[in-house]
Inverse folding.
């Protein structure tokens, strides 16, 4: 199929339909509304359900219900909407319901703004709701990568009964790039069976019950431990990253999503000036690619984010004190400019300790 | 102007077809087998204020999709001219809609071209196609895209449900492509 130009948001929606998603529930919010708009046009044609809920709280609970019944269900929102969904996401995690949750981030806190942001990193990777749980977090940085990762996210979510999240930002959602989809869309009827699904069983077997309320502490602990065994298995299977010109790099920039693209252009500019720079780009944010990052022997690291510094903490965990880890970020919807980042790289090339210059 | 990479910024009023012209430019880049990105300004400015759109076209993979410093600025109204003319890189090109921008580009380090695109659209009964006239002219004076690539691009951008608009778009790009700025 000849590549076509599409927005990241629309590609995400089309890729989900191609991956066999047949239930979409959502509520409009900039900068991700194109996902819902695209689904409203295309999902009925695919024989699926598009439903605009009355709020994000309702939408996530509809995902809970459809996913519990074995459907390949999803929702999408942007930062303030995601905060509303967190209760439902915790219940989904506690009930082991696979689904896809998309956050196209905008500046915060509060209603904030509508320009791109990466300030929900901690929320996505640390505290997407109350209780001991994780979701798999994917952070594409190109439109084609969105199309490539969506089916993988759905498949892994089903395989491990763990929700998957796409953490994007407004510019990636709004950007158009050429994209090619797989020739053969998934057949929703041919996906692996979900024998746990709460579908009634036609009276032939006892009903399946999905529940997150476990009042006996040993029972609840055992269920959490069993879930964490699955997280360990996911960590063995899922560790996606891109290493760009890191082989001989003395300064390694670490960035994801749109910011990684900016950082990559800075690496190229720095190299032209004789500075040995490289880029490490995590594609999965949970599990975070600690091990491959820890193997890089740079003189210093520079995390670049559209936030006040959140992923930088994972970089510090990976580097574990072996080299200085610095940070440069813009926030509130501002995008770090290549020349701003290049200035920091030049300064660190002169003095890798970067005394007191972090922001 | 060097035509690779092209860091194109299109700017004007919402409703002038800035985003569509940007999409056509991106498809023209694809027709020439280059990498492309298209990124709109989004938000309140889409609802009637100023609109702008970044288009990157490059043989190499495109790192940053945001055009902070264009080497080609296609600008359709006065407020956008003021907002962006200083951001053009030295040696870059500015293509101005002289129907709505009633001043000269005073920067000595950029090459400026002017075309009365809004008037040409009205005279040729091509309502709303000043954008494509400007794109055709910009491509011709800079060598950014070939005419055939632009024509192919319009064929891919005009939706199937609005095929009656393809012919006027092709007419508009032709007008821009063949326009000659009068000697002073």
């Amino acid at each position: 199929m000849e590549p076509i130009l599409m927005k990241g948001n629309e590609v995400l929606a089309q890729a989900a339909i191609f991956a066999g998603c047949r239930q979409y529930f959502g509520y409009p919010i900039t900068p991700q509304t194109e996902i819902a708009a695209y689904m409203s046009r295309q999902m009925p044609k695919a024989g699926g359900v598009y439903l605009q809920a009355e709020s994000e709280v309702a939408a996530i609970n509809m995902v809970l219900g459809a996913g519990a019944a074995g459907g390949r269900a999803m929702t999408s929102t942007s930062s303030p909407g995601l905060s509303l969904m967190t209760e439902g996401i915790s219940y989904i995690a506690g009930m082991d319901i696979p689904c896809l949750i998309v956050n196209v981030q905008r500046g915060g806190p509060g209603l904030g703004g509508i320009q791109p942001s990466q300030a929900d990193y901690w929320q996505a990777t640390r505290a997407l709701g109350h209780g001991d749980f994780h979701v798999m977090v994917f952070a594409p940085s190109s439109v084609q990568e969105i199309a490539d990762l969506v089916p993988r996210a759905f498949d892994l979510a089903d395989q491990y009964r763990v929700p998957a999240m796409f953490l994007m930002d407004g510019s990636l959602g709004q950007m158009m790039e050429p994209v090619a989809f797989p020739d053969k869309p998934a057949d929703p009827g041919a996906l692996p069976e979900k024998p746990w699904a709460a579908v009634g069983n036609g009276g032939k077997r006892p009903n399946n019950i999905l529940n997150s309320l476990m009042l006996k502490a040993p029972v609840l602990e055992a269920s959490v431990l069993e879930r964490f065994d699955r997280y360990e298995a996911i960590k063995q299977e899922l560790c996606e990253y891109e290493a760009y010109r890191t082989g001989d790099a003395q300064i390694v920039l670490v960035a994801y999503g749109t910011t990684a693209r900016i950082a990559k252009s800075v690496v190229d500019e720095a190299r032209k000036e004789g500075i040995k720079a490289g880029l490490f780009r995590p594609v999965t944010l949970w599990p975070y690619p600690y091990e491959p990052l820890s193997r890089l022997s740079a003189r210093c690291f520079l995390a670049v984010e559209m936030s006040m510094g959140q992923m930088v903490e994972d970089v510090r965990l990976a580097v574990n004190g072996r080299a200085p880890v610095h940070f440069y970020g813009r926030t509130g919807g501002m995008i770090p400019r290549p020349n701003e980042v290049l200035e920091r790289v030049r300064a660190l090339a002169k003095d890798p300790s970067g005394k007191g210059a972090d922001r | 102007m060097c035509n690779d990479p092209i860091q194109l910024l299109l700017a004007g009023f919402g409703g002038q077809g800035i985003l569509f012209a940007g999409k056509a430019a991106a498809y023209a880049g694809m027709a020439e087998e280059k990498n492309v990105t298209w990124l709109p300004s989004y938000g309140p400015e889409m609802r009637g204020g100023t609109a702008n759109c970044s288009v990157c076209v490059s043989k190499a993979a495109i790192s940053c999709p945001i055009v902070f410093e264009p080497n080609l600025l296609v600008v359709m109204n006065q407020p956008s001219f003021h907002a962006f003319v200083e951001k053009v890189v030295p040696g870059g090109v500015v293509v101005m809609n002289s129907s709505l921008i009633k001043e000269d580009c005073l920067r000595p380090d950029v090459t400026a071209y002017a075309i009365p695109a809004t008037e040409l659209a009205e005279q040729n009964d091509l309502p709303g196609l000043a954008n494509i006239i400007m794109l055709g002219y910009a491509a011709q004076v800079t060598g950014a895209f070939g005419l055939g690539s632009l024509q192919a691009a319009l064929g891919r951008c005009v939706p199937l449900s609005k095929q009656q608009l393809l012919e006027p778009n092709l007419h508009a790009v032709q007008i821009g492509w063949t326009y000659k700025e009068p000697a002073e």
Observations:
- Helices of chain B lie at 18-31, 78-84, 117-123, 130-142, 147-157, 166-178.
- Chain B is about 35% helix and 20% strand.
- Chain B has a mean pLDDT of 93.
- Chain B touches chain A through 19 residues (CB under 8 Å).
